[in-house]
């Protein structure tokens, strides 16, 4: 399956925009309870899918490989963002002498 370079560039740009729009996540920090982290992860996945032009609920109902691939990429994106949030939080706490 050939991938359209324009689509790929568009998805990268949208993912970058999501990253910029989620900068406030850095202030949330580590120490979130498991339920809050799960909700944040769901929201990041939803934002990624919406920015890619997909309806998250409809995509989750599909079982084709393209849908599964997109969901996997959204999940990886969310996991990466959560890791980034936690890392930044630890860094800020160390700078403030709180850790």
Helix content: over 70%
Largest sheet: none
Quaternary class:
single chain
Quick check: average pLDDT? 80
Helix count, DSSP H or I runs of 4 or more residues: 4
Order of helices and strands: HHHH
Q: Could you give the distance between the termini? A: 49 Å
> Low-confidence parts lasting 5 or more residues at pLDDT below 50?
none
Structural class, judged by helices and strands? mainly alpha
Shape: elongated
- Share in β-strands: under 5%
Total beta strand runs: 0
Gyration radius, in Å:
15 Å
What are the defining features of this structure?
mainly alpha; 99 residues
3D structure, described in words:
The protein is mainly α and 99 residues long. The chain has a domain of 66 residues. The chain is 73% helix and 0% strand. The protein contains four helices and no strands. Helix 2 crosses helix 4. The radius of gyration is 15 Å and the shape is elongated. The relative contact order is 0.15.
Helix and strand layout, with pairings?
Layout: H1 5-21, H2 34-51, H3 56-61, H4 65-95
Helix pairs in contact: 2-4
In short:
By secondary structure, the chain is mainly alpha-helical. The protein has helices at residues 5-21, 34-51, 56-61, 65-95.
